[in-house]
Amino acid sequence: MRRILIIGATSALAHEAAKLFAKDGATLFLVGRNRSKLEVVESDLKVRGATQVHAFQLDLNQLDRHQAIFDTALDAMGGLDAILVAHGTLGDQQASQDSVNIALSELSTNFMSVVSILTIAANYFEKQKNGCIAVIGSVAGDRGRQSNYVYGTAKGGLDVFLQGLRNRMAKSNVAVVTIKPGLIDTPMTAGMKKGLLMAKAEVVGRDIHAAMLKGQSTLYTPWFWRYIMTIIRYIPEPIFKRLKL
Amino acid sequence: MAQKQSWGRYPKVETQATRVIQSVQLLDELPNLAQIEASVLPYGCGRSYGDSCLNEGGVVLDASSMKNFLNFDPATGLLRCEAGVTLAEIIEVMLPRGWFLPVSPGTKFVTVGGAIANDIHGKNHHKAGTFGCHLSRFMLLRSNGDKLLCSPTENTALFRATIGGLGLTGLILWAEFYLKPVQNAFLDVEEIRFNNLDEFFALSKASDKDYEYTVSWLDTIAAGKNLGRGVFIRGNHNQSGYLSSQTPKRKQLFTVPFDLPFSLLNRYSITAFNNSVYYSHIHKVTRKVKSYEPFFYPLDIVGRWNRFYGRDGLLQYQCVVPYDSDTVAMTEIITRIVAMGEGFLAVLKNFGDIKSPGMLSFPRPGPTLALDFPYHGSKTLRLMENLDTIVREYGGAVYPAKDARMSKQSFQSYYPNWQEFSQYIDPKFSSSFWRRVTDSPPQNEA
Q1: pTM (2 decimals)?
Q2: Nearest CA to CA, how far is A36 from chain B (Å)?
Q3: Which of A65, A116, B176, B383 sits CB 3.0–4.6 Å from B80 for a disulfide?
Q4: Helices (H) and strands (E) in chain A, counts
């Protein structure tokens, strides 16, 4: 993978994966919301060996800019081999319950804006008949739980969207990778208690890099979340609805 | 109450809280240190052995998230990175491109910030001095919000105070220093058996000019006529272009999963170890080509090896005595250790006379000895106090990064300029070590 577009490039997971692509000597186009963070990630990836790094500041909620940013990336890199979509917010569940606007804006950032950029990318890759689309979802999308179901809804919707997209792109030789991280020690989870299950972002970055190179369909990372979520999915609803999860 | 530990896991102290410091360039998100209620102390990998990285009852500033590279100039080897970048990461990124650390300590799992704060040294001290000798500048955040660029020409006093300043002068945000070019990841190594300290000094003298790296393993069991025997190790970077395409990959063998209830390192295991090392060098001289990892970081192959020392932890003791004390001081120290009857892992080296810019730096010309001690309560502390008496008498010094117990009196005689240094301490910053060896209150009044 020589040319990669990374959306939400300053997220810890995207950055960790990007470090490995940089080491491989890839050319990277970074899109993120915070300019000073972008600059740091850009300089870091350059030192780590990326052939070229471009950075572009954008709030991904500006859906009407998506086509333009995609075209700019194509221009800058002279083509595209993969896209990694990693932006998102882990909103406050209570706030989403209290306010319609906050709930909708969570869905907008974590679902609508991803669908928007993926639709553009999918049409491009379908024509090219080659490429990789990787998206960071979440184990929270596997089953709705009271503690984070608004965020979970967005990630769950994304999961279904990616299933369909994978099905559509199979004949065009385009891999669609759904990445489902568990609890990761990143700035996003800074407020949480760090238990045994909390994994390091470096580990997840390695998994993402490997899954993209392989074109794996669904990646649970770290690996044990596949089994945890299997159990959680199979708990019968009459019991599940009484649990505090 | 949270617990942050040092590598020796002695003493064990409670910290009030840990504040994770995010990446430094995010100006808007830089922490307001003045708002924190207790005293603060930067914390990197926690590889200092004693309490210089601990702040009992205070707050530690966890710098491990500040780990971005900021710039590299392949023409000069000048690297700029955030203070939480580890030496391991620098090697991983830079060695394949032909660059290596100017100075390597015995483990690569330390941060750049920690390397500066302890002004670390390595096997090439006689050729390259300390880490601080290779610094071009760094950015220091003070608790009043000032960001000060420190270099040999700007904020000179703070530059000198921060190098070896034990993290007390402020939070280092990023640093810039020179890497050195190497042909490949290998070293040409010679290991030479020596039978006593006189032989060690002779070997050291003969090797310092032509060998970039020198260090010795010392047998601390052998007494009598075998006192001071060991193996002298010297090496240079391998120059073969052929090897440059090879990148040795060494994985950790295993990580010690939990604290052993007692120390595995006792007189029997260490006697066996000492004998096996000595007698494995059947020939007077052994020559080999070694990859950098077993040469520089032999212990890194086992994760959390400090747990081998059991729940009570371990103490390190590293001292240096001046050359003019000849072999007398070292002989006295080693005799004392051997007489304890309990063997310890020991490393001996001659420091060179390259002066560090650091005000409170430990290395000074003379032989330096580093030892591991399983902690056995007052017996261990007494022995170390006895060693201090000898070191003080000969005008030597003990390394704060490895200390958990030296007395005020010892510290102040080892570092007579500590009061000059203390005027550069940030009033918000403090450490368990500093409060122990001076009489400073938990939080100085600004």
Answers
A1: 0.92
A2: 6
A3: B176
A4: 10, 9
